[in-house]
Amino acid sequence: MNNLKIIKPDWVVPSNVYALQTVRNFNLKKKSNHTSKKELSNRYGLKFLNSNEIILNQMHSNISIELPSSERNADAAYTTKKKVICSVRTADCMPLLMTDEEGSFVSAMHAGWRGLSSGIIENTVKKINFKGEPIIWIGPHISQESFEVGGEVKDIFLKNDPTTEVAFDHGANGKYFLSMRRAAQIKLQKLGIKNISFMKDFCTYSNPEQFFSYRRDASSERMTSLIWIE
Fold this sequence. Notes:
Elements: E1 6-7, E2 17-22, E3 28-29, H1 37-44, H2 49-52, E4 53-54, E5 64-66, E6 76-79, E7 85-90, E8 94-100, E9 106-111, H3 113-118, H4 120-127, E10 134-138, E11 148-149, H5 151-160, E12 168-170, E13 176-178, H6 180-190, E14 195-198, H7 214-217, E15 221-229
Parallel strand pairs: 4-7, 5-6, 10-14
Antiparallel strand pairs: 1-2, 2-15, 3-15, 6-9, 7-15, 8-9, 8-10, 11-13, 12-13
């Protein structure tokens, strides 16, 4: 793919399901209207991506939409249609890709702490008519060791789901360290989803050579997580 380094999720899915995770050298900005010549070149590295990827206007919400759709204000998308690419962009937030054992649908979710606490995972899962056991892959995001949050963040999580308390470790001065991966795992397991794969060396903050990190760099660059049915 034009020597671009792209990660293929390490999971077992049906042969009709394709998924990719971009890294630093696949330079996509947060907003689609900031596309540079380099970015366009990178996009065409994935051939039909430029015309088939539907870019969401991510808002850190719990809104999930079915594609194809004219709606763009959402933080998760799912589809049962072939060659319709569900994608999300992240640079510390957690991307989740989902399908099932039958390959009957695909979904991409953008879960920062706001979306994670307010139910982006639950809202997406509950909208989908599974034909087989669901399968999840969690991509690169900021690790617990690097993600210090205030007590108000913990309060929001516990108000919506008290069982997520185990996703927090105490820090200094009333701060906490949040494991978004643990919080997501708790929510997925409560929904009956057991087949969950995690990316190794996933921390965006502590891997500057491989990943963008908004908390580290305060830049607009993002990685993209994509999934589609062939």
